[in-house]
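Task card 7
Instruction: Convert sequence to structure tokens.
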Amino acid sequence: MTELAPTGPPHPVRFADAVAALPALPAAAPGDRYGVRQLTVTWLAGFAAHTRTAYFRDLAHYLAWCQRLGIDPVRARGSDLDHYRSTLEHPPGHRPPSAATVHRRLSALSSWYRYLVANSDGAVSVNPAAAVRRPRVERDASATVGLTAAQVRALLRGADELVAARLSRVPSARANDDTGTVPPPLARALAALRDRALLRLLADLGMRVGEALGLDVDALSHNQGRRTVRYRGKGGVRRERPLPAGVGRALDEYLAARARAARRPVGQLSGPLFATTSRDGGTGRLTEPAAFLLVRRVARYAGIPSADRLSPHSLRHAFATNARELGVPLEDVQDAMGHADARTTRRYDRGRHALHRDPALRLGDLYGDRALPVEDLGDGSPHR
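Output:
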């Protein structure tokens, strides 16, 4: 379906301006804190960054549709939302979105209308999305392509090989030339070191890509005799995780090279942990689209068949599945992934329905290897 709306507010600080540019809503009255546009800003502000961006896009898409059909969204009826759902599910000339996307968009609109009903002093009196039937979403299904443990190892080996290849092309130990710029061979080697460290972090810790890319250099710390990384997880929760040895080495090598390129000690580095470096030495933060391309590029190099359908989230799924395959208790995996509900963690575990993990096999071995003594039956009787 052709996207009818802007891609979303580019930065949380500016999302109020993006709301001001949304179509079909009444103009904001100066000083009216309960106007629809101002309430839309406060509604969005209550969500975490990723949810805020997704809901903004969903709302913008709906409002653009309203504008095109001449519908006033403030006075929309349930039949209008039924029409919108039909348009989503049967877009003329385009492939329809997934059931999960339709469900999320309708859920976002219902949340928005519910907020307006509660706060708009009667400007919006009903939630027209409340009664709209939403498509059933299979909670165990996921569009994320998974990775086996062998494929994760191949991906990380590929990152190692790319680092070695890039470092072999750096002509000398000098970080910068006399102009203070970073020579292209060194910049490419530095990027390879950064990319390897990021892949290691995503694979070994199962972090969300937004969490990883949001890290600053000072997030690295020590606690209980271990190296750790501190960050804010989903919902703004403060978290601290241990750094496995492989992640620590990859980060150390990357930061050491970055410090040499900047001509300063590692301890004086600041800013984003996973940085982009311009020719003039300036740094920026690696973006999520760049991380998506990175995963696929290294996966293609490593010969992984599903390379062009992978994402950083594939490594998060692999973390859950392979940790459970190792026998890590579900509650420990849940805590590591920052899930409030164990059922969410179970959905990430791709191997939960594998036949070799069925308790029947373990019980069959138990019952076949020894006969239970009579006293183990509880009341001394051979049968109950």
